[in-house]
Amino acid sequence: xxxxxxxxxxxxxxxxxxxxxxxxxxxxxxxxxxxxxxxxxxxxxxxxxxxxxxxxxxxxxxxxxxxxxxxxxxxxxxxxxxxxxxxxxxxxxxxxxxxxxxxxxxxxxxxxxxxxxxxxxxxxxxxxxxxxxxxxxxxxxxxxxxxxxxxxxxxxxxxxxxxxxxxxxxxxxxxxxxxxxxxxxxxxxxxxxxxxxxxxxxxxxxxxxxxxxxxxxxxxxxxxxxxxxxxxxxxxxxxxxxxxxxxxxxxxxxxxxxxxxxxxxxxxxxxxxxxxxxxxxxxxxxxxxxxxxxxxxxxxxxxxxxxxxxxxxxxxxxxxxxxxxxxxxxxxxxxxxxxxxxxxxxxxxxxxxxxxxxxxxxxxxxxxxxxxxxxxxxxxxxxxxxxxxxxxxxxxxxxxxxxxxxxxxxxxxxxxxxxxxxxxxxxxxxxxxxxxxxxxxxxxxxxxxxxxxxxxxxxxxxxxxxxxxxxxxxxxxxxxxxxxxxxxxxxxxxxxxxxxxxxxxxxxxxxxxx
Length: 514
Description:
Layout: E1 2-3, E2 5-8, H1 24-37, E3 41-45, H2 51-63, E4 68-74, H3 77-87, E5 94-100, H4 103-110, H5 114-128, E6 134-140, H6 147-160, E7 164-169, H7 176-189, E8 197-202, H8 209-218, E9 223-226, H9 240-249, E10 256-257, H10 265-276, H11 297-305, H12 333-342, H13 349-365, H14 371-382, E11 392-399, E12 407-413, E13 419-425, H15 429-440, E14 445-455, E15 462-471, E16 474-482, H16 485-498
Parallel strand pairs: 1-10, 2-3, 2-9, 3-4, 4-5, 5-6, 6-7, 7-8, 8-9
Antiparallel strand pairs: 11-12, 12-13, 14-15, 15-16
Helix pairs in contact: 1-2, 1-10, 2-3, 5-6, 7-8, 13-14, 15-16
């Protein structure tokens, strides 16, 4: 069977989803989970786009040792140099350099002739080869490029040192038949193609990213690129969890292997969804909450008699647990530590104490604490920087009634350690709370989105709030969870504001679309 390498770009292309803004700790936690998931290559970011991205890529390169870490670069010496500085400490550093090859991109974006584009590509691959042992060269907008031109430029960049050739469907335009035919043409006509691996990278603008990726694999591609939950620019990328499960379930059609640990799918999906604030649609393939739900009586009857009647994917295959092990108020520190290690978290002693304290507080209010509850607690604590000054919630109170004007009173400590307190009104209890928080914070704030969901089920389920806002003109996101909706709202608001104090550049990321 042919082995296919999995190239994950959740932390680069995925983070380019509108409204997504991950900090360094969140990126590092996702990177650790991607390592557990079994991806082969991890695109940690675009180092030259901002100081924050550079620091995040460098941190991931230094901490992730079982996955090849790569960074994106434009075909310029400065981008390549910055990428090397960020990646040089990686166990297996590699560079991903791109240059557009379609007529429309060369004429209107690059304003270069095909000959000039070819020379730039060759020169930059040669330049990168001085440091990087692995170089992936991407022909941006390959699916709308002239095939004979692709043959010429690919032949030359392989001679220059490229070890992977990526032919992306940048705008999600192509069909499975067309995409497969392009790879066949390249394999048949590039004389030195045996010296490089072929890679595909598909966007989902027409809903065919996964189908196009599978077609590419059938036509000789040995590396497939995508993101968790299919997040990314515009309509997103090919969803890696769907590709991995498709290759597993349909081995009769796809005789290919990967290193993916499929039972890590659900946890990986949940982690990315929580950190990005991009909720997984209930009907999403493989990871949606309805993926294993059967409403129809006929379906229910069939599943009870034999799950294979309507369930081609078992919940256990992708890590969906039908019966979470619950912890209660009498669970001790040892049992708690064992549980979080089983869940894949590695906490420092300081954060372990903090997590256990939060767990005990929750058990005073909630009879049974599920995996989902622990997941919310642990992800919050693991991605909270303890060494930065920030706004902290001291207390709040909201007066609300159908015949009264909603009023909120809030007390905070500022980053300077000063306690401040005030009250404001609003058209509803949440607005009153947000207005009060905004009045206490000196930064200029504009709230643009507010979303509420529950963690788990039942009357005592935790509430989770995601917000989007601008703080001093910079877009940020925030999240917060608590049993009380208003407390979760306040936490999400402050979480977003405090991101401006995190050691990360607030410069707007330069978009690089592949």
